[in-house]
Design goal:
Elements lengths: L9 H8 L6 E4 L2 E4 L5 H17 L6 E4 L3 E5 L2 E3 L3 E4 L10 E2 L2 E7 L5 H12 L7 E6 L4 E7 L5 E5 L5 E4 L4 E4 H4 L13
Parallel strand pairs: 4-7, 8-9
Antiparallel strand pairs: 1-2, 1-5, 3-6, 4-5, 6-8, 9-10, 10-11, 12-13
Length: 191
């Protein structure tokens, strides 16, 4: 089935998208096709997701990676690279999560503007969201946007620090583990 030319309502998008072989994101009636990821992207997603899974064992929170939908607003559906939810309704859903505590996106040259702009704007509408993490595997830039007491997100640039610190879930992950297996500029494996 092809994508209709007119803008879609979210229910129509969900019905259409659930029949597709590929993943698509939705924002205000427009559909954005998800493209395949690079090896470094997959490694960082796996490293972060695995560390979070291990850390959250025996807790009421769960970590999910790449294939799960998050609905941050009435007019948006995204597939975050990694997210954690502790919400009871989220933990019973089969398909759409609405109250993640932590969302992480692994950047690429083609998606970083989208992840920093439109997606972050939508994610900020989630009442439960405490941290939004952007990881660039090429430059090793790591930015954590943390919600403060006033409800605003503050940037905590963790680039070049020994560890990624995620207060929302109490995790301290050494940067060497976050970037394990990712090639450095010389092509040699890191970690």
């Amino acid at each position: 089935m092809g994508l209709p030319a007119e803008k879609l309502a979210i229910d129509d998008f969900m019905a259409w998208e659930n029949t597709q072989e590929t993943k698509n994101e939705f924002y205000r009636g427009e559909v954005f096709a998800m493209v395949g990821a690079r090896r470094t992207h997959g490694l960082v997603v796996l490293n972060l997701g695995s560390a979070l899974k291990q850390h959250l064992r025996d807790s009421p929170c769960r970590v999910f990676v790449e294939g799960m939908k998050v609905q941050p607003a009435d007019d948006a559906i995204f597939y975050p690279d990694v997210f954690v939810t502790c919400d009871k309704l989220d933990l019973r859903t089969d398909m759409v999560f609405r109250q993640p505590t932590l969302v992480a996106e692994v950047l690429s040259r083609t998606t970083q503007g989208y992840d920093r702009g439109l997606k972050f704007t939508a994610y900020r509408q989630i009442a439960a969201l405490c941290e939004y993490v952007l990881v660039d595997p090429d430059s090793r830039q790591v930015e954590v946007f943390r919600r403060n007491a006033a409800g605003n997100f503050e940037l905590i640039d963790q680039t070049g620090t020994p560890a990624l610190v995620l207060d929302s879930v109490g995790l301290r992950l050494p940067m060497a583990e976050l970037f394990d297996g990712v090639d450095n500029e010389d092509g040699a494996a890191v970690g």
